[in-house]
Queue: 3 jobs
Job 1
Amino acid sequence: MNRRDLLALAPALLLPGCSSTPELKPEAKPAEPITGLHALYQMYQYSRTWATDLQAVRCSSIDITQVKPQPGKVAAWQAVFASPSLGQQRAYTLSVFDASVSLRLGIFADAPTSLASDVHYFLLAAARTDSDQAWDTALKHAGDYNVKNPNMPISYILEMGRNINDPVWRVIWGGSVTSSVFSILVDASTGQYFETLH
């Protein structure tokens, strides 16, 4: 093979290297909403670096417009834990989406505050019914109201019951307790319907 033959072959030898396509990065999976207990347990594990005698005070949903909620699931939750030994309580926020400067992806803690004497808290093990199950139960007792208000936002709060010795889910038709005129209480321990609030 002479020099002229080698020069003729050179373009063909270079072709395989030129024809390779750049690797495509896999598309980021869209953020998925999560249930209340799933979020609560993640925040509980995270908060144990602050105190080891934690009791749950409240877990409430936070609406994020960029992530569509599903029945019993939202994109962000806030939990408040109490430490009786420290005499303090502390709020934690978990979000599956980077929504704003104050609501970022991940788990973040607020500064501890004094524990009020009238705070009612509960053991996490007492809450055995998740928010999606609470939604299913609530819907059985709010079917007509839900049909008449199809576009109303749904929010959720888990806290110790005032008239029951168990934690309860409050499924709220509306953005908050103060703006709502209808909600259903579900026993978070047994999963049973407890009360309708108008």
Job 2
Amino acid sequence: MSWFFETKLRQSEKNGPIIATRFFGIWRVIVEGVEQTGPNAHRVWIDAFQHLKNLFPTKRIQRVVLLGLGGGGEIKTIYKAFPGVILTVLEYDSAMITLTKELKLYHPYPLPEIIVGDVKETLPQLSSSADLLIVDIFQGENPSPLLTDPTFIDSLSHALGIGGLLLINVFKRKEYLEYPKTHFALIAKWPFLWNHLALFQKP
């Protein structure tokens, strides 16, 4: 083990090989050649949360639900962006959850509640409405096909309170940002690095 370079390999039934590497203290988590946690992903979410705050400077975000753990690299980012927030994470890959607990990238903040299971099943079971729902779920570099499923879009709507915000990253597949328009008002969409993101609001 070295602070300068370290690597961890985890075999996942859901994602296949998960590769985590640390170089000069900075961790990157890679699945199918795509960065799940790392400097680029971090820049994407810093920028996204700034977009949200610019558009809704007075909105109070008390409860956030994150779909997709991705090595846990952005747990700290969410806590810092929305002080005092209650965070719940939905993740279908137990191997990714185990890796997140090993890397502890959320320190010094606490590990949030993580619910393991398919989001089609776990999302409708949430007992409290969210103020912000973040969707960052992929199969390799492709967004989850759930984003094209009207039933799933309906579940996203039910998980949010009135006026709640939906923030979605679809990487390169910006056409996926059209599907939530059936249930949500589009507030803004923007590119950042190789990613396309959009912010929606529940009427």
Job 3
Amino acid sequence: MLAATALLAFAVSLAVARLLLTTFRNAVLDRPNARSLHEGPVPRTGGLAVLAGIGISVALGARDVWLPVAAAAVLAAVSFADDLRGLATSLRLAAHLGVAAALLWYFLAPADAMLIALLSVAVAWLTNLYNFMDGSDGLALGMSVFGFGTYSLAAWMAGDGAIATLCAATAAAAAAVLVYNFHPAKIFIGDVGSIPLGFLAGAIGVLGWRNDAWPLWFPLLVFAPFIADATVTLARRALRREAVWRAHRQHYYQRSVRMGFGHARTALGAYVLMLVCAAAALYGRGQSPAHQATALLCAMLVLGLTAVWIDMRWARHTRAEGAPT
């Protein structure tokens, strides 16, 4: 059932993406601005195709975990309204935090209220950082393929068929749209795709922990390439007293593209980091504390060295070109 559901999710998402690229190509366009990395208008409806594939998994083989998908659909509706008309930042953030808190309270009560609050903030942060990291061809969907694929494998190893099926279908749906999203991207997933995917990464991460499929650090390591880039960039901007909520081009992946590596090589390099973190998470899952610490430290070392290398290259680039930071 898992493989069949994943294959069907791939086929459905691929078909919907193709339909969006033809019949509805000009429905919602992402037009480049001073902070963009693309040069021409691109449809940003690809997230609808991903959601269609995820919906198939709930209908066929993951009915026991329909609630996180329903919550993600609520956020998708909010995000689609934002894509169409634009919504206040405060309203979007309130929706992200409120939906996360309601879902986790349902999952975890009567757990400590402070724990639920902290996890709700973490899920809301992952929801938003996924959106921040969706700015280069193939990046966010690649993270979805590796991240949810890793979730699926870990859940299958733990005997949790519902989570395994849902995550396999999510990874397959992301892979289908990635066919059109890899450089040169013909379609973007938009907020309607990145927000639900980030939310599901956090919500399913907590659900898997509740179900004893993995330890609580596991989701953090699986999605560490995104979490590290977004969190370090935000912290740096905050320390410089910049408006952290405004669009910018200071993420590590954005600097990589701007230094001349381009979208394709940046995505492929990120895929290597995603694979390293996924392998470390799977290795450490279920092991002794010492082995878990080893897995975490190795992955963090790789990410840290990559960040230092990009920082050094960026410093030379800005000195040579006089480019803004």
